[in-house]
Amino acid sequence: MLRNTLSETRRTQLLVLLVAAVFILVAAALADLVAGSIATLTTTADSIDDQRALQATSGAVQALRKQMAATLRDNAYWDDAYAEVNADTRVDWIIENWASTSADYPLYDTAIVVDSRNVPLVAYRKGVPMQVPPNAFFDDFQALVDAARRVRMSDEVPVHFALSSAGTELVGAAAIQPFESDEALDPKGFYVLVFAKLITPAVLTEVSDSFAIAGLRLDLKPAEGRLAVPLKGVSSKDVAFFTWPSMAPGTKSYEKVDGDLQTAGGVLILFLCSIGVTGGITVRNLRDSEHVARHRALHDPLTGLLNRAGLLENVAAASDCARRSGKQVKLHFIDLDGFKAVNDAWGHAVGDALIVAVAHRLRDALPKGAFAARLGGDEFAVVTLEGLGAEHVPSFGGRLQKAMASLFEIDGRSIEIGCSVGVAVSGHGALQTGELMRRADTALYRAKDLGRGITIDFDDSFDDDAFQQAELESQLRATLLRGGISVMFQPLIDARSGAVTGVEALARWRREDGVAIPPDVFIPLAERAGMIDLLGMQVLTTSLMAAAAWPALSLGVNISPLQLKNPRFVEQVKEALEAANFDPHRLTVEVTEGVLISNPEQARRAINGLKRIGVKVALDDFGSGYASIGSLRRFGFDRMKVDRSLVAALEVDQNAGAVLQATVALANALQIPVTAEGIETERQATAVRLSGCDELQGYLFSKPVCAGEVAALCCVAEAGGRASQSGR
Hints:
Largest sheet: 8 strands, mixed, barrel
Structural class: alpha/beta
Number of helices: 23
Distance between the termini: 167 Å
Shape: elongated
């Protein structure tokens, strides 16, 4: 009995020991598992925060470089800047526009301009001349200037960090050149603009606040125990470092509960709760950081409005709401009228201030439930959610145009702009976001084409027009590739003798189905589609080949203003003349007044180039535009062609004769011969002869004819001219 009792006791003890051992083992395993989990959570939280800080700081460095690059692009790739630095007054202009602004401009405090020989022309720091020679500003100064000259306009502007006597600098350089790249210009002859910004404590504070990097510091070497992002110099060496302490949120959170964990000793529930609290704090911090990053990703930094990505996301949400509520989504695309002129006249700082003012006025005009976005530049968008019967309510576009009609007061300047609005509607939110935006964009382009300052709602016919234009463009391209454009010739008649003195070449296009497309349709189409160079040279080549058989006649050929933008245009004309063995003095190139206004310098270079090879240049359609007397004298035209509207007015306006006579008198005073176009009656012919025109053209004498009829027409005109003279 006793033995049995002892045996039972031993078994109980063994069982207790076994249970205790198992409990100890389980407790140890749980403790180890929990400890391992805490360690992993702590390390992960620290690592995530460190990675976030590293990415934020790297993003801050890139943002500084991009901001400097954008500033350089805006100031260096600028037609006015290129013209001014190549003028005699370059130093005064550079000091006024760049050097003096370094005193208080937030984006740079040093401005240096280096000439084509790499000799510093102007060097200012904080609004006063630099005490240190520019080439001694930092070690790799010359390498930065050389890199700027090698950069093409489409490439990234070189921006790096450098160590100067004042400290660490953000330095960039860009070659000063026209906004439209010109392959004929030698980059070695460009002046180079250098901007620098000292990384001051204020800059560090701004970066720290903007990118949520606590304890940010600028060090020449990485400090032990601190995270670091290198600041690369021109030669890709580390110039300095942005350093900051690791916040270690996981470690700090664990330290807060470590005492309680040790005190609890094994209270697993409290231990797990502490882990939950720690994890919750970490997740909340990460969630807050994610919210800040998301806000930046979806909003425009200048105006605070949504950006394009934010617009896409919110339009999708508005479409879902419209589907549930049975409403319609209205997307308004807005383009400011006259904004480029503001930028050109007063600079980008005033332009940015105007954009901010427009954004404020846009917010004030928003109806309830609407939201606005800035798509970039001077383009905005507004989305409204309206009932399906809202077509009869005054449009938001009209209200917005009234709001924009008031003057903007910017830094003491009164600025007047307008806006064009394109509207697209998605009933019940049925349209995909991309399609809705395409329709709004199409409507906006239609509004701008119709004269700006208006609101246009998208119509299905716009797509039909676009399809027809695309089809016509495809047919024109195919016609040009096979050389299918034909040329007709309209005679030019001597006002005294009645003899044919020359012909004007006129392009004609008849499609394969026999339909004739008028020039006022297919020529603008060729200009929009980038085919005008090919079309113009085909007409010129065909005309020269045909007119080579009429050595006594001059040849006039119309040129599109876009052709004058081609830097090889004069060379191409010369090659065509040589291929046809055509005397350049017999060729007259006719240009319209518009080219004198849109690109006067470019037009002057092309006109001078044509004259150097012996080609005459005539001003076509005079009287339909705004060419000034100064322009006529400056360009030195060989002939003026009076617009047909002045001739046609002779039949309906009693003052038309005086206007015509004054126009011809102006040309005669400048010793420019005059051709009158569009003459259809003997009365018109008599009036233009008496006004002093020496050359006549119109259906009264001949309609445009093919090359084969020109020779016969010349004989008839000469016979008529001799008979007319003998009759006198």
